[in-house]
């Protein structure tokens, strides 16, 4: 069985036992990692990735690639030349297991690039910030109000002004006279959309 995995912006076709050189990963020698961005397993093709599939690999070593020379020369009068060398940092891996199913429950650490932030920090921060917003969004819905931001052109600030003025439903906004309403500058198309949404 083979799989096609994606890491470091590149794709690799692998089988169990293969040795890979990939862009540097945040891991130490002897550690087992799991790649979850799997484009293909056997004959199963993902869109964009195969769900719940994974490739597990053991880190052999952190290495450097061959030296690449970058040479620039400007010809003729007042010429200059510059030479720079670069050795790309790589991680040497041995593929140990290809999982068609059950990759999410395997408990193996996900492979991440050396410069990336741990996934736990990325997931935890938005959840805490999103919790108050979710509570605010549910509160008006529970009291029988509509989401006025569904109207094209009405943003969160305008919706808040409408709510402060006592307009919380599409029917109430549909009954507003755009010329005489002072709390918010109401566009006639907002009233028309509110009438359609209120039906």
Describe this entry's structure for a reader:
GO terms for molecular function: rRNA binding; structural constituent of ribosome. Keywords: Ribonucleoprotein, Ribosomal protein, RNA-binding, rRNA-binding. This is Large ribosomal subunit protein bL21. It contains four helices and ten strands. It is α+β, with helices and mostly antiparallel strands and 199 residues long. The protein has two domains: 2-71 and 84-116, no CATH class; 130-198. The relative contact order is 0.13. Strands 2-1-5-6 form a four-stranded antiparallel sheet, with no helix packed on it. The protein has a four-stranded antiparallel sheet with strand order 3-10-7-4, with no helix packed on it.
Cα-atom radius of gyration: 28 Å
The portion of residues assigned to helices is 10-25%
Give the oligomeric state. single chain
For the secondary structure, the number of strands is: 10
Strand content: 25-35%
Q: Sketch the topology as an H/E string, one letter per element.
A: EEEEEEEEEEHHHH
The biggest beta sheet, please? Answer: 4 strands, antiparallel
Task: Report the principal-axis shape.
Answer: elongated
What's the arrangement of strands in the largest beta sheet? 2-1-5-6
Pfam families: HHH_5, Ribosomal_L21p
InterPro entries: bL21-like, bL21-like_sf, Ribosomal_bL21
Family: Belongs to the bacterial ribosomal protein bL21 family.
Function: This protein binds to 23S rRNA in the presence of protein L20.
């Amino acid at each position: 069985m083979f799989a096609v995995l994606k890491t470091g912006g590149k794709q690799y076709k692998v089988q169990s036992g293969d040795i890979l050189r990939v862009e540097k990963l945040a891991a130490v020698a002897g550690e087992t990692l799991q790649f979850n961005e799997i484009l293909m397993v056997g004959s199963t093709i993902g869109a964009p990735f195969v769900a719940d599939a994974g490739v597990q690999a053991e880190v052999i070593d952190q290495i450097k690639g061959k030296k690449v020379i970058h040479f620039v020369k400007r010809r003729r009068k007042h010429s200059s030349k510059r030479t720079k060398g670069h050795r790309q940092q790589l991680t040497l891996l041995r593929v140990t297991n290809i999982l068609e199913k059950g990759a999410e429950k395997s408990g193996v650490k996900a492979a991440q690039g050396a410069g990336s932030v741990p996934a736990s920090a990325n997931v935890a921060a938005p959840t805490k910030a999103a919790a108050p917003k979710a509570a605010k969004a549910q509160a008006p819905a529970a009291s029988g109000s509509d989401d006025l931001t569904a109207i094209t052109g009405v943003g969160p600030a305008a919706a808040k002004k409408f709510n402060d003025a006592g307009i919380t439903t599409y029917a109430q906004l549909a009954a507003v006279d755009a010329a005489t309403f002072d709390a918010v500058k109401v566009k006639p198309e907002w009233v028309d959309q509110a009438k359609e949404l209120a039906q």
